[in-house]
Amino acid sequence: MALLESGEMYLETIYVLSQKSNSVRSVDVAEEMGYSKPSVSRAVGLLRKDGLLLMDETGELKLTEAGEEKAKRIYERHTVLSRLLMNLGVDEATATEDACRIEHYISDRSFEAIKAHMLQYGAE
After folding, report:
1. For the domain that residue 98 is a member of, what is the CATH number?
2. What would you measure as the largest C-alpha separation in the chain, in angstroms?
3. What is the structure's pLDDT at 1?
4. Do residues 41 and 88 both lie within one domain?
5. Could you tell me if 70 and 3 are in contact, meaning their C-beta atoms sit under 8 angstroms apart?
6. How many Cβ atoms from other residues are within 10 Å of residue 74's Cβ?
7. What's the whole-number mean pLDDT along residues 87-102?
8. N or C: which end of the chain has fewer CB atoms below 10 A?
């Protein structure tokens, strides 16, 4: 199943928040992303329907195994691409913003080539 960019952004945000805190709720996601609570609620519903996210009776969000796998993949792309751009001399704010755009569209083949290049030349 192909996940849209917005869904990927939600998964990545939930993943990052879950690394910082034991409990992630929709309000945390809304605050982090700067979105309205109704927008986050709709996205959470879609991610739950797709089997990528669970929500317990207290409103706590947990990624499913499939959701966490996708979120980790997206987050890895974000961090690697950010580092690559900064290694090329791009300032951190611009590199992070650009990586956020690129991470959703770059092919697996190109991304793996970038990772291999960075490992080969010590640009981790």
Report:
1. 1.10.60.10
2. 49
3. 44
4. no
5. yes
6. 22
7. 95
8. N
